[in-house]
Amino acid sequence: MNLLSQFLPSSFDRQRSIAIIAGKDVYPRLTFEAIQSHGIKVFLIGFEGETSHDLISKFPSDRVDIIKVGQLGRLIRSIRRTQVGYAIMVGQITPRRIFRGLHPDLRALKILKTLKQTNAHSLFGAISREIENEGVKVLDARAFLDQEITEEGLMVGRLPIMMEDHITHGIKIAKKCSQMNIGQGVVIRKGTVMAVEAFEGTDEMLRRAGNFTTDKMIFIKTSGPCQDFRFDVPVFGITTLKVMHKSKINVACLEAGKTIILEKSKVLDFASEWGICIYGFS
């Protein structure tokens, strides 16, 4: 196991630089700060309308490229220019861009024609292959964030004993949905599936479930059997916790070792204050 992070390959060379391919919100910033703390040289490849200006401002002009979503050729040229040894893809790209707001260049169009299914998994899988064809290793997107990973067992709050069978049932449902590439989360109440995550994402699913205005709902987030952690990591953060609180969903069950809790200490503090239980299952 690599001492810098359990999610790095044993052959990882800290003398080689890393390109962060950064999407939205806080995930890319946390990754940048963690990598920087180890003294590793970092470059940023960001996306117009997605990557935060605050993160972009942390990089000198010769270490940052901002491109449009879909400009695969330009992304590869940036990879070549920086001569990095590794790339890490972190932070969501707004899902609707797959249908509207995508700016594919010639290289991207060529890749799109080869895909049997046009979804996030197939697109980012193809991008990863293109990057690795340049001799650049795409890292597990959990790398360097070991302290943010969900732990097994009760992390905060109290889990009613009567919910244990319901959680087991919910995990089976969530696993099956993930296996079918529907989504990574479900909301259940006793034996009833209240909502299933699909293309709209976790927060919208939770809002839908909240419209039922009932009690004892449980949110479960899991990974799939063939999860590619280079670009598809289950993530839980303060925004989702706020949606749970507003929707009166007071139990979150997250897959331990595989789900990142962004700004974990802050999330656990707010969960305790709001009476929300967070439990890690394996």
TrEMBL record:
Record EC number: 3.6.1.54
UniProt superkingdom: Bacteria
Residue ranges annotated for the LpxI N-terminal domain, each copy included: 18-146
One of the Pfam families matching this protein, by short name: LpxI_N
Leader sequence segment: none
Start and end residues of each LpxI C-terminal domain: 164-279
Keywords of the record: Hydrolase
A GO term for molecular function: hydrolase activity
Protein name according to UniProt: UDP-2,3-diacylglucosamine pyrophosphatase LpxI
